[in-house]
Amino acid sequence: MKITITRWNAISTWQWDHPQDEVCGICRVAYDGTCPTCKYPGDDCPLILGECKHAFHMHCLLKWLSTESSKGLCPMCRRKFNTAT
Ligand SMILES: [Zn+2]
Ligand SMILES: [Zn+2]
Ligand SMILES: [Zn+2]
Question: What is the pLDDT of residue 6?
Answer without folding.
Answer: 67
